[in-house]
C-alpha cells in the first residue's frame, strides 16, 4: 500500500486532517495501527489544550420514545461549528444514547457509540477533528406513564431534533385527546417564551428571592422615602417578581389577559395538573 493510500485510509478511519495523518504515518514508520494510536494521543493533547477556552455556543438535542423524553445541551465555541455536519451527526447520535441513559451523564460518557468507541473517546476525537472545545452541558429526562404525558417544543431549530432552545413539560391526566395535546403544545411554547423559574411562587429558589430582594432594596435606597414606605414598596416588587416568574401565575402568552391557571380551569378537566417542566437555552 502506498503512503497516499495509507493516508487516505487513516483519514477515513480517524477523521483527522491530511497533514496530521501524514505525520503520524511517518512517525509510525508506515504502521497504520501505530499511526492511529499516535493520532489518538495527539487528539487527547489537543483536546486538553482547548478545554481552557469558552464554549458558549452549541445546540440542545431532544430525543424521545414511548417511555421517556430527554434533552441535552452540547456546547462548542462558535455558531459556525454548531451547524457543522460532523458536530450535528455526533450530537444526534449522542442524544439518542442520552435518552437511553436517562440523562445520567457519567453513564453516557462510558456508553459505546456506533463506531464501538465510548462517548468520551468520540468527544476527544470530535474536538481534535473540528478544532474547538466541545462539552456536554445540562440534561434532563422525563418519564412517561399511564397518567403522565410529556410535551415538547423546539425553538430556532438548527436541524431536525437540534435547536437553540428546547422545552419539555409534563402534565398529569387520564384524558389524552386533542384538547390535551393542543394545550400541552401551547404550554411548552409558553414556557419557551416566558421562561418561568418555577411552577408556583412557593417553588422559586429562596436564594433567587434573596438576591432579588437585595437588588430591590439597593434600588430603593436613594429614593428618599421613609423606611416603612420602602418596606411596602419592596414587598410589592418582590410579590410581582414571584408572580411574573411562577408558571401558574404568568399571563398566558396566547391570551395575555388570562393567567395560565385560568386556562387550566377553563379546560374543565378535573384531574389535570402540571407536574414539572424543563427549559434549556444555549447561552443562558
Amino acid at each position: 500500500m502506498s503512503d497516499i493510500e495509507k493516508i487516505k485510509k487513516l483519514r477515513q478511519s480517524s477523521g483527522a486532517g491530511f497533514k496530521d495523518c501524514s505525520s503520524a504515518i511517518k512517525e509510525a514508520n508506515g504502521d497504520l495501527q501505530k499511526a492511529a494510536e499516535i493520532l489518538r494521543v495527539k487528539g487527547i493533547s489537543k483536546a486538553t489544550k482547548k478545554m481552557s477556552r469558552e464554549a458558549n455556543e452549541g445546540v440542545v438535542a431532544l430525543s424521545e420514545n414511548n417511555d421517556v423524553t430527554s434533552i441535552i445541551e452540547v456546547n462548542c465555541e462558535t455558531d459556525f461549528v454548531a451547524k457543522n455536519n460532523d458536530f450535528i451527526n455526533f450530537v444526534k447520535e449522542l442524544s439518542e444514547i442520552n435518552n437511553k441513559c436517562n440523562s445520567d451523564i457519567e453513564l453516557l460518557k462510558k456508553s459505546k457509540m456506533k463506531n464501538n468507541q465510548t462517548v468520551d473517546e468520540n468527544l476527544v476525537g470530535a474536538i481534535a477533528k473540528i478544532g474547538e472545545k466541545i462539552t456536554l452541558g445540562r440534561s434532563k429526562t422525563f418519564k412517561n406513564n399511564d397518567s403522565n404525558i410529556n410535551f415538547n417544543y423546539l425553538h430556532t431549530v438548527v436541524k431536525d431534533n437540534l435547536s437553540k432552545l428546547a422545552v419539555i413539560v409534563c402534565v398529569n391526566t387520564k384524558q389524552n385527546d386533542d384538547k390535551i395535546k393542543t394545550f400541552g403544545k401551547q404550554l411548552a411554547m409558553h414556557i419557551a417564551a416566558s421562561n418561568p423559574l418555577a411552577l408556583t411562587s412557593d417553588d422559586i429558589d429562596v436564594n433567587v428571592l434573596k438576591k432579588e430582594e437585595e437588588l430591590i432594596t439597593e434600588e430603593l435606597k436613594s429614593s428618599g422615602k421613609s423606611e416603612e414606605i420602602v418596606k411596602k414598596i419592596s414587598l410589592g416588587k418582590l410579590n410581582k417578581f414571584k408572580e411574573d416568574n411562577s408558571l401558574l401565575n404568568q399571563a398566558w402568552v396566547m391570551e395575555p389577559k388570562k393567567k395560565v391557571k385560568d386556562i387550566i380551569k377553563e379546560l374543565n378537566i378535573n384531574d389535570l395538573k402540571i407536574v414539572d417542566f424543563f427549559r434549556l437555552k444555549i447561552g443562558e
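The mean pLDDT is 88. Residues 3-50 form a domain with the Helicase, Ruva Protein; domain 3 fold (CATH 1.10.8.10).
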